[in-house]
Amino acid sequence: MQQYFVSVELKINDVVYFDNEQTHHIVKVMRFKSEDIVKVVDVNGKGFETFLCIDNVKCSGIVISEFLLNNEMDIDVTLVMALIKKDKWDYMLMKCSELGVKKIVPLQVSRCVVKSDDEKMDKKLVRYQKIVTQACEQCKRNSIPQVTKPITLKQLKDYTSDLNLVAFESAKDKGLKMREVIKSNKSITVVIGPEGGFSDSEVLLMNEMGFNNLSLGKRILRAETAATYVLCAIDALCE
Ligand code: SAH
User: Fold this and answer.
1) What gap in Å lies between CA 104 and CA 140, rounded to an integer?
2) CA 198–ligand 1 middle distance (angstroms)
3) Per-residue pLDDT of the chain (239 residues; tens, 9 = 90+)
4) pLDDT score, position 6
5) What is the distance in A from the centroid of ligand 1 to the CA of 112?
6) Which of 27, 74, 173, 201 is the most buried (most CB within 10 A)?
7) What are the domain boundaries of the chain?
8) From 3.90.1640.30, 2.60.120.10, 2.40.240.20, 2.40.30.110, which CATH number describes the 3-67 domain?
């Protein structure tokens, strides 16, 4: 059953209003009719079955029942992801949203091929949020990951968790393995580098900030693969 997110709190018998994009999807893409039922997730992550009322192109719904929705990971994962090329970035947004990431923080480091452009960033953030929202509607999550404005390493301290890791393929000590570090942490922050990797000084700075080196195995993964790998490993080890 199709699912949509709304940014209000709902209870049974409420009327829910869909935005223009959702209305277009309901009426033109899914070709739903009045009295069809869709799932709506409210601002608190609660799921409700909703009776559609379509009048020409206006679309609303009557909340008829609540259903149990618990499709979130037990661990809050914050992915601090170096900016990479658009198509790979979009792939990472989609896959990590499907895999349960809680927050995605774009990171600007020295070897990023893509430079964050403040002027265009607001528009990009709208596009990023749309990608993660659609991924969460498709995989039936309770909540949508937040994609923040890009940061530099100086601001990394604002995004720490119980466990803080930097994926570094050239760690002399080979770094910790996922299965060694994922224990009963409630929250994890993982930093992934760009196509060109991290400089040694950037890794040193993150180590000094309490980020331990993490190995993702013997092979060198593309950045978007590394991000997906981390979420898959946490999911597999903890769910
Ligand atoms: N330096 C790499 C390119 C960077 S890979 C090269 O020589 O080609 C992009 C990012 O993915 C890295 O910065 C790192 O964060 C992560 N990564 C990829 N493979 C990894 C591995 N085997 N172990 C740890 N991190 C890895």
Assistant:
1) 19
2) 8
3) 899 999 999 999 999 999 999 999 999 999 999 999 999 999 999 999 999 999 877 899 999 999 988 999 999 999 999 999 999 999 999 999 999 999 999 999 999 988 878 788 899 999 999 999 999 999 999 999 999 999 999 999 999 999 999 999 987 777 788 888 777 788 999 999 999 999 999 999 999 999 999 999 999 999 999 999 999 999 998 87
4) 96
5) 13
6) 27
7) 3-67, 76-238
8) 2.40.240.20
Q: Find out whether the beta carbon of 224 lies less than 6 Å from any atom of ligand 1.
A: no
Mapped onto helix, strand or coil, the DSSP state of residue 79 is strand
The CATH architecture annotation of domain 76-238 reads 3-Layer(aba) Sandwich (3.40)
**80 CB under 6 A from ligand 1?**
no
DSSP notation for 114-150:
SPP-HHHHHHHHHHHHHHHHHHHHHHT-SS--EE---
Q: Are 71 and 142 in contact (CB under 8 A)?
A: yes
For the question of whether the overall pTM of this predicted structure is more than 0.90, the answer is: yes
* Separation in Å, CA 201 to CA 11, 14, 151: 52, 55, 17
* Ligand 1 pocket member 220 (CB < 6 A): yes
SS (H, E, C) 91-104: HHHHHHHHCCCCEE
* C-alpha to C-alpha distance for 35 and 93, rounded to whole angstroms: 34
